[in-house]
Amino acid sequence: xxxxxxSGGGLVQAGGSLRVSCVASGxxxxxxxxxxxxxxxxxxxxxxxxxxxxxxxxxxxxxxxxFTISRDNAKYTMYLQMNTLKPEDTAVYYCAARRxxxxxxxxxxxxxRGTQVTVSS
Length: 121
Known about the structure:
By secondary structure, the protein is an all-beta fold. The protein has strands at residues 3-7, 10-13, 18-25, 32-38, 45-50, 57-59, 67-72, 77-82, 91-98, 110-111, 115-120.
């Protein structure tokens, strides 16, 4: 059983930067991982994904060029560096894992509890 714990959320002004992290435990070797987000009243949406090796990444159009996903397999940790943040990036950010990289929310097997990111205008 894979467990995921997010951290690093907070309040930041528009145009600022923030990095969120996700630590995995429970033998998640070579699992693809992803970030999703959910704003109040909205459906959970894909943000970015990374393959188990880290060689392949995929981004939602809304964050491309501003966000960078990465992972350190030695630390079982995934990161999302968020730059040039906008108020519309405000959401709870969730970490997810599955055996192969994907972008559909309902294909992921394991989920963290989320970390709140709030961007003020």
